[in-house]
Request: fold
Amino acid sequence: MQSRNKAMRVVSRATASLTMALLFGCSTPSPERPQIKEAAILQTATGFTIAEDVRVDEDTRKQYVAALRLLEQKDYSQGIALLLEVTQRAPQVSAPYIDLGIAYGRSGDLDNGIASLERAVELNPRHPVAYNELGMLYRKKGDFAKARASYEKALQQSPQFHYARLNLAILCDLYLADVTCALDNYVAYQQTVPDDKNAAIWIADLRARVNK
Reply:
């Protein structure tokens, strides 16, 4: 159980960094920031980037970048304050709400974290990172049914989004005692991330329980 709890914390860090990779479109296109007409899920050798085509003024963009730097430094109070300003300047953009949810969650304010992430999925119902982060906060609140639904929604948008796949497997294994769900999702996770040696241990453990 200790190794699975450790994996869950790694998942949390990984998804946060993905959220920070969201692109803000500037008023003038540039080679470094390609114009994407709608939300796109881009899978690379190292993970995922969720790109959105939005238009904000330069001051808002700079505020957003500064807020992300504060979050990277774990200065959540200042980062949250700056992100709240960004949401006022760009209320229809989902990215700052996702980062707000992550920051609130890590500072222990689960209710505001959930509210921020729920607003993010209202703005962008196809965002797997938002659903995954929302699932983690629901789990921390003890609302396991909502956590499961959020992970499943993330996977509906992107079946290869292995962070949500692992979180769903852990939820079913450690919190819901749903061995079938846990085993199916650990296997799917292992197929996507074959280098994670822990997955093979968890799968063997579950199969041993099933065969008793």
About this structure: The longest strand covers residues 40-43. The chain is about 70% helix and 5% strand.
